[in-house]
Design brief:
The protein has 284 residues and is α/β, with parallel strands linked by helices. The chain is 39% helix and 11% strand. A hairpin with a 4-residue loop joins strand 5 and strand 6. The longest helix has 15 residues, at 202-216. It is elongated, with a radius of gyration of 20 Å. The protein starts with 7 loop residues before the first helix and ends in a 17-residue tail after the last helix.
Length: 284
């Protein structure tokens, strides 16, 4: 599938981020733990090339635990500071401030030598749409600072949030990049709900997801939907439609509705802990 989605407001948001980079000390990049490579915006590397960096693998509770550990090792091997978090229930959140200070220790030491003490570190939080930035910020600040939604594009503008005496956070809208060079990136982002569903061919997308499950997580579709997995993806989707009573007039199967159910239940973790991507290189 060739999926591309770059609405006009993202160009403006990227320009705004570029201007705001001079105000901040560290870029905190929120990734989806199920697709850490596809959810990394390559534009961030050029925008933040002289800033301290911290990667957060969010929604870790939805991803395969063993593969989460592999991704942590992968980023650490590349010299990138990383924390695995679940912003919704607070997992990993207590370590964030210490990690920010560790990442910015050179800056803190420079300030100390100049006699500047207790100046808060200014951090910019970046991430693709629907990666959980608003939930993360509200959890980190321990108060409702931002509007939370389960669809891409809820955060439209920027806002500064004082987290504590040590950290101030600049929220930014979720942005993608103009062209996905690899078709798999668009597909993976569509799986997790970071692409506007209205532009997607949900039946084709769900059949591709079924094929992935059959190869990598055999048995989960049979358990969840009581379907025979030794069939073509479209036949399995038909089985899901029957199981969930997705019918049109005349008892014709509603494939579109069944596809929507499958995608939603994957995104919400009802099929279990599933990682779509894992590091290509085995980390020793």
């Amino acid at each position: 599938m060739n999926i591309q989605w770059y609405p006009g407001h993202m160009t403006k948001a990227k320009r705004m981020m570029q201007e705001d980079m001079k105000l901040i000390d560290i870029v905190i990049e929120l990734l989806d733990a199920r697709v850490p490579i596809s959810s990394r915006n390559p534009d961030i590397d050029s925008l933040a090339n002289n800033k301290f960096r911290l990667v957060l693998l969010n929604k870790c509770d939805l991803a395969d635990e063993k593969i989460n550990a592999k991704w942590e090792a992968y980023f650490k091997e590349k010299g990138i500071m990383v924390v695995t978090v679940n912003a919704r229930d607070g997992q990993g959140m207590k370590s964030i401030t210490a990690k920010i200070q560790e990442a910015c220790k050179e800056k803190i030491e420079r300030d100390r030598k100049r006699g500047i003490l207790n100046r808060p570190i200014r951090a910019m939080i970046v991430g693709i749409p629907n990666v959980g930035k608003s939930t993360f910020i509200n959890s980190y600040a321990k108060k409702a600072c931002t509007k939370v939604g389960n669809k891409p594009g809820v955060t439209k503008g920027k806002q500064w949030i004082r987290i504590n005496k040590n950290v101030e956070l600049l929220d930014t809208p979720g942005i993608l990049w103009p062209k996905f060079e690899d078709d798999m990136v668009g597909e993976h982002l569509a799986f997790i709900g970071s692409i506007n569903d209205e532009i997607l061919q949900k039946v084709e997308l769900s059949c591709n997801l079924i094929a992935f499950f059959k190869e990598n997580y055999p048995g989960i579709l049979a358990e969840r939907y009581q379907v025979e997995e030794n069939l073509e993806a479209t036949e399995i989707l038909a089985g899901i439609a029957k199981n969930r009573g997705c019918l049109l007039k005349g008892n014709e199967l509603n494939y579109e509705k069944a596809a929507g159910i499958l995608l939603e239940e994957f995104r919400n973790g009802k099929l279990g802990r599933i990682s779509i991507e894992q590091p290509l290189l085995e980390i020793k």
